[in-house]
Amino acid sequence: MSELIEKVKETKMENVFDCVYADGTTRLCTKNFAPGYSVYGERLINYKGEEYREWNAFRSKLAGAIMKGLKENPVRKAIKVLYLGAASGTTPSHISDIVEKEGKVYGVEFSPRVVRELILVAQRRSNLFPILADARFPQNYGRLIEDVNVLYVDIAQPDQTDIAIYNARYFLRDKGFILLAIKARSIDVTKEPTEIFKTETAKLEKEGFEVVQVLNLDPYDKDHAMVLARYG
């Protein structure tokens, strides 16, 4: 695919790149931690001796948030991330790319079937650690996880914000960040999503979190918002 690429350039966010194609289109990408292997069928790009993975904003809420104007990506090189709702590893694999070998990504997923897929991804990524567990009960997996710099939450539960806060109390370092993907229709199908976003961010503020930014993820994810909040 290298002949299709005009250039790969750095963005303002660490280890997140813009891949500029010869036809003028630009896509987000990350440097592949597991060269030669894609995770969800994404395009692999060779440029100046490095391999990059195209990061599809319609498949990843973090990529969608970046495309919608995320002011700051707290996911950086060499940090530790706890990811609740890791699923089969699409976004966790890109986070694995970003944190590199000095970082760690703990991926908690409730479904045994899906965890098997996540394990296959982790087999080629020494910084990705799958954990089969229920995110509502962090005490059950606390011994497996160090304190983290970022808590990423993408779970379809009515009490998803409460679960995020509970896990933050267990694992998030002071001045650490939450990236919370609010799924409005999982909370209340009768209310307007914007009303739900306000209610959920108010919960974070009441518990002492500083809400830095709230981004509506449409058109990448309908009725979803990404909340960036700082702890402590």
TrEMBL record:
Q: Which domain of life is it from?
A: Archaea
Query: Sorted alphabetically, which InterPro entries does this protein's record hold?
Result: Fibrillarin, Fibrillarin_CS, SAM-dependent_MTases_sf
Q: Name one GO molecular function term.
A: rRNA methyltransferase activity
Pfam family for this entry, one:
Fibrillarin
Q: Where, in this chain's numbering, is S-adenosyl-L-methionine bound?
A: 90-91, 109-110, 134-135, 154-157
Q: Which Gene3D superfamilies match?
A: Phosphorylase Kinase, domain 1, Vaccinia Virus protein VP39
Top EC class per UniProt?
Answer: transferase
Q: List keywords of the entry alphabetically.
A: Methyltransferase, RNA-binding, rRNA processing, Transferase, tRNA processing
The signal peptide here is none
Describe its partners and assembly state.
Interacts with nop5. Component of box C/D small ribonucleoprotein (sRNP) particles that contain rpl7ae, FlpA and nop5, plus a guide RNA. These sRNP particles form homodimers, giving rise to an asymmetric holoenzyme.
Record protein name field: Fibrillarin-like rRNA/tRNA 2'-O-methyltransferase
Question: What organism does the record attribute this protein to?
Answer: Candidatus Acidianus copahuensis
Name of the encoding gene:
flpA
